[in-house]
Predict the structure.
Amino acid sequence: MSIHYYTVGMAGHIDHGKTSLTKALTNIDTDRLKEEKERQISIELGFAPLDLGDNISASIIDVPGHERFIRQMIAGVAGIDLVILVVAADEGVMPQTKEHLDILSFLGIKRGIVAITKIDKVESDFVELVKEEIKDQLQGTVFSESPLVLVDSLKEIGIDDLKNIIKEELHQTEERNASGAFRLPIDQVFTVKGQGTVVRGTVYEGTVIEGQSLLVLPSRRETKARQLQVHHRPAQSAVAGQRVAVNLSNVTKEEIERGDVIVDKEHFFVTDTIDISISFIPSLKYPIKQRSPVRLHLGTSEVMGNIVFFDRNEVTGDVGEVLCQLRLDEEVVTKRGDRFILRRPTPTETIGGGWIIDPNGEKYRFSDATIEMLHKKKEGSQAQRVAELLKERKYLRKKELFQLTSIKEEQMPEVMSEDSNIIEILQGYSLKSEQINLLSIINETLVLYHQKHPMRFGINKAELVNLLSQSAPKEWVIYVIEDLIDEKALQRLGQFVSTSDFTPSYPTQWEKRIVQMIQRLDDDLLEVKQWDEYGKDSGIPKEVLDELKHYLLQTSKLYVLDEKHFITKQSLQEVIQTLRKNTNQQFDLKVAKDSLNTSRKYLIPLLELLDTLGITKRDEQNRVWVRDTIE
């Protein structure tokens, strides 16, 4: 059977016995710093493995309880699956316990256990009274229906009962996704002599393998997982829910910090503007005004920014859900659905928390329309979000789509089955309706082009792509054009693209004059006038004349004698027949001149043209016939 991995957090007021309880459960003292030993309080996060059997492997995170270390506490509980709320029997629920409860609620923690510690500090007759008092205090919180366990960590009373309850709760807890893109928010960075930079964190999702290429966000530094350790033991891999230490290559300790995120794919947004759904605590000390400075706690990161409302200018208390935006001073790494905590920097207090609607927020107007738009973003199904996004962007590569919607790649078949208008093409996605619309635009563009330039074989493909890229992404346009060519819906000749039924022809309004002009060219045989003279004599505009020349040359109905003189195919063939009739297999310039009775002005370009066409071959001063017809 496969092993199931979870992270269990210890939360509660300072000096209520979290670290002692962790040691009783795991036999590991998580207070490792000298200052923690001296002051007998937890300052940094502590970690210990908890093997529960039944194929369950858990990591315990012991978070600091003191209000001065609340940022460490948030960084610790942000990645947990189950919380043990530690409440000392002799003190009950304290102010910091309540703030921890608010934080856990905002982070969406759904399962918890209440461990009542220090039961030796109260008379046995009062234990039941303590339990009832704690239950009353926890009404309306995630712990209101949670099991309560009485423990004495030093005497290890109730420890086995607690382990069994932890096991039961984890059996009912949904595992984190180990198959998606890997994400590890970093909560510790240090160096190991001879090894280099090591980071630690709880794997939020996905799997990391030793030797795997990784990316540090938001700096986008490329690195590799040289070695992995899970609770100080070498490991080949680590999966969602596990605590892991990763030895990174090509990254110094100074180039990475707590709050950075290690990923294996760019499926996560690096952003400083995020649309959010937030709930505020009822007991705010002071109102939260429009654009107030706030401190965002997201994963293990802590960033200053401003809160922007679109339907109010301040919040004074419990107003229910508020849809608004955070504009941050620094970039964070996130995706839709991530939970966060907001704290006021001064006076310091937790003011609320919620979840990210859109990590790719933009600047919006203060209006009901903006709130309505945010509601649609928040409430829309995955298929609706994808469809709305593709209406706006027309086409999105897979990485962009997964970033913008926070949908996993393996979920896309279900999304596409829900909305059959969403289609997968060219390493990305578009809407079938948008593709049909693009087909219409391509056809209209080509028809107009053919009407304007009837003698051209079509539009240059690069020019067509450039024209259409104003209304659709370039790579999508290229894909659709190539697909249409393959399906014979369009035709291509060299670099030119046209509609499937198009054939170049003379423009209707100039056709008669063009035919007459070409007849004059035919009549003049070899001794033609300059090209522009024919156009002038025929009354054909210069731009039409240039188009005509290009068309006749492309169709081999006209050949170049020099840059100003041209001969028609019919005339050239007549000249070749005359020359062949009056010369032997080999002839020189004088013989050719006498045969055609023409001047060197026309003869030299003619003979060079015959050599170019492979009709004759030059042999010193003579020419040798190869064939006597134009291919």
Notes: Residues 4-171 form a domain with the Rossmann fold fold (CATH 3.40.50.300). Confidence is low (pLDDT under 50) at residues 31-44, 65-69. Residues 517 and 537 are 8 Å apart (CA to CA).
